Each structure stands twice: as C-alpha cells, then as structure tokens.
Amino acid sequence: MESYLLKTNPDGSQITVRDVQMVLLEMLKDIDALCRKHNIPYFLNGGSALGAVRHQGFIPWDDDADISMMIDDYRAFQKIAHQLGDKYIIHCFETNKRYNVLIPGMKIRKKGTYLKEVNSLLGNRCTDSDGVFVDVFVYDYATPNHFLDLPLRLTNQLLMPFIILFENLKINPLPLKYWFLGNARLYGKLNRKSKYIGFDLTWTFKTPFHPFIFKKEDIYPVQYVPFEDTMLPIAAHPHEYLCTAIAPTYGTLPPVEARLPKHIVDIRL
After folding, report:
1. How far apart are CA 48 and CA 44, in angstroms?
2. 58: which residues sit within 8 A by CB, 6+ positions away?
3. If 0-12 CB within 10 Å is exposed, 13-18 middle and 19+ buried, where does residue 79 land?
4. Distance between CA atoms of residues 131 and 77, nearest Å
5. Is 28 helix (H, G, I), strand (E, B) or coil?
6. Phi, psi of 111 (to 5 degrees)
7. Measured between alpha carbons, how far is 66 from 49 in angstroms, rounded to an integer?
8. Which of the residues 66, 204, 240, 255 has the least number of beta carbons within 10 Å of its own beta carbon?
9. Left if phi > 0, otherwise alpha if psi is -120 to 50, otherwise beta: which for 46?
C-alpha cells in the first residue's frame, strides 16, 4: 500500500496518511459508541462514505473523516458530546461564538494532536485546540424546487464572502452569523414536510443551482457496513447517495497523479 507521506520530523520519523487515519478511526469508534448508546442516527459523509463502499475503510490517500446528522439529531448530539470525555474538544458555534459558521457545523478535535489545514481563509478561530478532527455536517429538510429553494440559498451565498472578509480582518461578524444560521434554520422549517433532505444552508461551497439534495429514503434508515476493523453507518441506498454526493463514476479510481492527500499542511500526532 502506498504510504502517502505527510511529514518527516526533525528526528527522522515520518507521519503518513495511514497514521492519521488510525487516529481518525479511533475517533470514529468513540463517536459511534456514543451515538449508539443514545440512539442518535448519523452516517459517513462524502469521501468517508465512498471509502466505506469502495475500499471497506478509508480511501488510501484520504486524510480526513466526515459524518452527517439531521438537524434534530445534531441538537441531541450536542447535548451529550461532552460524554466523549477528556480526550476530545468540541467546537461549534453554539458553544463558542468565534466558531466559523461557514465550515461544518461541528468539529470534534483530538487533544494532544495538531493539524494545520490547507485552507487559510477559513482558519480555526477557536484558540483552545488545533487538534486532528472529525467534521460533523448538518443535514436538514430541503426542496428540489428552485423557486422555493433559491431565495434563502442565494442569500446565504451572498453573505458568505462578507463573513469571510470580516473573519480575516479579525472581526467577529456576529450579526451576519446569526442571519446566516437563521436562514438555514428557516429553510429547514419551511421544508419540514418534504421527502428530501440535504446539507443545510450553512454549506455554501457548491453551486446553488445544483445543491446536495437527496431523497430521505435513500439515506434513512442508515445501515452499518464494514469499515477497517469495525462497522460504521452509511446511507440506506449508497449508490443513489454517492451518485449525488460524489459522482455517478464514484466506483472508478482516479488517475494515480490525483491520488493525493489534500487537507493537511502540517501535522503532529
């Protein structure tokens, strides 16, 4: 297996993508145990779901881990996330108003580690930890009808660059953040009876004309499948999910030159 070197330390020791994956796997196991204990459904998202289906574990060159929850399950998880214990620090806007609302709803960080991300414009504003993390994405009810979908979605797209600007001027744009989050919650409430779900409107890094929207029945109830040396949950109908979340060609490996880790600038484990 290709080692995908991330860093050579001053003492000559090396850190590879696989080393990071083993830390992430431990974190995923702890998160899964807590969610099972409290009957909180969640599922592997994006590349993590693709890894589960195509590789029965991590994509060999993938250097992060993503999970998703419906908004109500996310709120329930927030209340018990502290039960993960002293190994972890939980970052989200609800507990730290410095949190950048443009990134996934929550980051679960491992104490005693350090990770510097590639994206400097969306840097970590929570100063108590820069540890290795699992991203928690929030899903909510959605509509495929552009006339109903676009007004609030486009509003958040327009708010995004202003939030980035103020964040990088070291100004915490709280009124804009509350507006941004309020739009996302309103959108979900307006579509509460919909058969569709998707990334809530805080995820603005995709064209608003082709957002991530799925039939709820394609994701729930989640199913547990082999992942490395354990079992983790993915969408009920992974093919339908991955065709939208990744691409219809998700089963085809990318060219060798594209098989590279893409999130980490610096790392300490």
Report:
1. 6
2. 21, 24, 25, 48, 51, 65, 228
3. exposed
4. 20
5. helix
6. -65, 155
7. 8
8. 255
9. left
Provide the 8-state DSSP code for 170: T
Q: What is the C-alpha R_g of the chain?
A: 18
Residues paired with 225 in a beta bridge: 232
How far from 73 is each of 35, 57, 79, 229, CA to CA, in Å? 10, 24, 10, 26
Beta bridge partners of 267: 115
What is the 8-class DSSP label of residue 87? Answer: T
Tokens of 25: 């796997």
With beta carbons less than 8 A apart as the criterion, state whether 183 and 155 touch.
Answer: yes
Q: Is 81 helix (H, G, I), strand (E, B) or coil?
A: helix
pLDDT in tens, the chain (269 residues): 678 999 999 999 999 999 999 999 999 999 999 999 999 999 999 999 999 999 999 999 999 999 999 999 999 999 999 999 999 999 999 999 999 999 999 999 999 999 999 987 888 999 999 999 999 999 999 999 999 999 999 999 999 999 999 999 999 999 999 999 999 999 999 999 999 999 999 999 999 999 999 999 999 999 999 999 999 999 999 999 999 999 999 999 999 999 999 999 999 99
Residue 219, both tokens: 């994701």
CB 213 within 8 A of CB 144: yes
Residue 253: CB atoms within 10 A of its CB come to 12
Domain locations in the chain? 5-139+214-268
